[in-house]
Prior knowledge:
The complex is a heterodimer.
Chain A lengths: L1 E4 L7 H9 L4 E4 L2 H6 L2 E6 L3 H10 L3 H10 L3 E5 H4 L4 E2 L5 E2 L6 E5 L11 E9 L14 E6 L1 E5 L5 E6 L3 E8 L2 E4 L7 H13 L1
Chain B lengths: L4 E9 L2 E2 L14 H11 L4 E5 L4 H15 L6 E4 L5 H10 L3 E4 L1 H5 L2 H10 L4 E9 L5 E5 L4 E6 H11 L3 E6 L11 H10 L4 E4 L5 H9 L5 E4 L1 H4 L5 H10 L10
Parallel strand pairs in B: 1-3, 1-11, 3-4, 4-5, 5-6, 6-9, 9-10, 10-11
Antiparallel strand pairs in B: 1-2, 6-7, 7-8
Amino acid sequence: MIAIVDVCGGNLRSVEKALAAVGGDVVVTRDPEVVRRADKLVVPGQGAFAPFMAGLAERGLEAPIRDAVARGVPYLGICLGLQVLFDESEEHGPVRGLGLVPGRVVRFVPPHHDIKIPHMGWNRVSAHAADPLLPGYVDGTHYYFVHSFHAVPADPARVVLSSEHGERFCAAIRADNVFACQFHPEKSQRAGLALLAAFVQS
Amino acid sequence: MLARRVIPCLDVKDGRVVKGTGFVDLRDAGDPVEQALRYDAGGADEICFLDISASPDGKATIVDVVERTAACVFVPLTVGGGVRAVGDVERLLLAGADKISINTAALATPTLIDQAAARFGNQAIVVAVDGKRRPDGGWEVFSHGGRTPTGVDAIAWCREVADRGAGEILLTSMDRDGSGAGYDLEFVRAVVDAVPVPVIASGGVGALAHLADGLAIGGADAVLAASIFHYGHHTIAEAKAYLADRGLPVRRVDA
Lengths: 202, 255
C-alpha cells in the first residue's frame, strides 16, 4: 500500500488519481499509524513551507515519516514534499525543515522582466545522473512546475535533474530511498505518469 | 526555458460542450471530459473549461465535470465562468481544478482577488479580462461575458489585478473574439508590458499563424483558442509543430 500523506489538506485528488491510473494501490491519509504501515510514501505539497511543517507537527506525521525514511521505505516527494526534506527554507523565514537532506531552500532571483515568479509552466530538464524512477528518460523532457522557491542541496551529487529559470536550479534529487521532484508528475502528462509508474513498480 | 503554452478552451453549458466539434470518432462529442481527454492526449499544455451555464443546476454540474476530468486528465486544468465567491473557488479547486478564473465578480468586488490569492496562492488565481478598443485609444473592460461596459481602463485594471495577487491574466479582445482575424496584438503587447505576471492571449484565432503572432509579436506566455481546435481545423500537435517551426519554445509530445 502506498500512503499519500495529507499534511495540509487541499487537493490531493490529482496525485491519487494519477498513481491509481498507473496501477498504484493508494490511500490518502493523515493518520500516523497508516503512514507507519505503508510500503511506500508519497508526500505531495502545495502552499507555503511554514504551514506545511506545522501540519506535519500537529498531525503527528513528522516522526512516522522520519522513521519510514530511516527504515528504507521508498519516499516520493513532490514540490513542497521535496523542499521540506532540507535543513531550512527562506520562505517567510528561515523556517526549519526536516533536515533529512543537507541544504537550503531559496527564492528565485529573477534577473529580468521576462523571468516571472512563480515559475509556472512546462520546463525542460537535464539529467545529472541515471535514476530507477526515470526509465527511458529522454534529455530535454518537459515537466510541469509551479513554485517560487527551489532547493540547493549541499551535495551537488544529490541532483538528479536540473532545469533553468533565470538560473539553473535543482528539479529532482535522490538520497538513497528518497526521490523528490520540484515539478508535479501528476500534472506532467506522459512523462509524469512514467515516473509515477516507475515508483509504483519499484 | 519555459515552454510557451497552447491551451484549448471548451465552453460548457449544463455539463455539455456547447460548440460543435471536429472529433468525429468521439463516442459522445458533447461530453467535456471526453474532449478534454482527447486534447490531453494530443499535447495540450493545459485545458480550460468556461462554464456558461445560467442555472443553479448548471453550476452544480460543472463541479461534477471538473471531478470527472481531474480523474483522467493529467495536465493542469483551469476553470472559469460564474465564479462569484471564495467558496466557489474552493469548491472547484477541491474538485480537482488547478486554477480558477474570475471575471465579473472581480470587477464587482476586487478584494475577492486578494482573498482568493491569500487563501489558495497566486498560482491558483487567474483573472479574466475582456477588453474592447475605445475610439479614442486604449481599451475598456467589459463584464458579464463581454456584454456590459464598465468604463474601466483595461491596462490599469490588469495592473490592479496583478497587484492584488492574480497569478495570471486571461486577456480576451471582444473586438476579435469569434472573428477568426487573429488576436488584438497591440492589446496583448500593452498588457504584457504592463504586468509582471503571465498573460494568456485569447479571442480571434482563425489560423495557426495567429497563435505564433500572439506569442512572438504580442509577447504572450500562452495562447488560448477554441474554434480552431473544436471544429477540427487543426490539431494541438499541428499547432505545436507550426510554433516550433517559427522558433518558439514549445513542448512537443510527438518528438
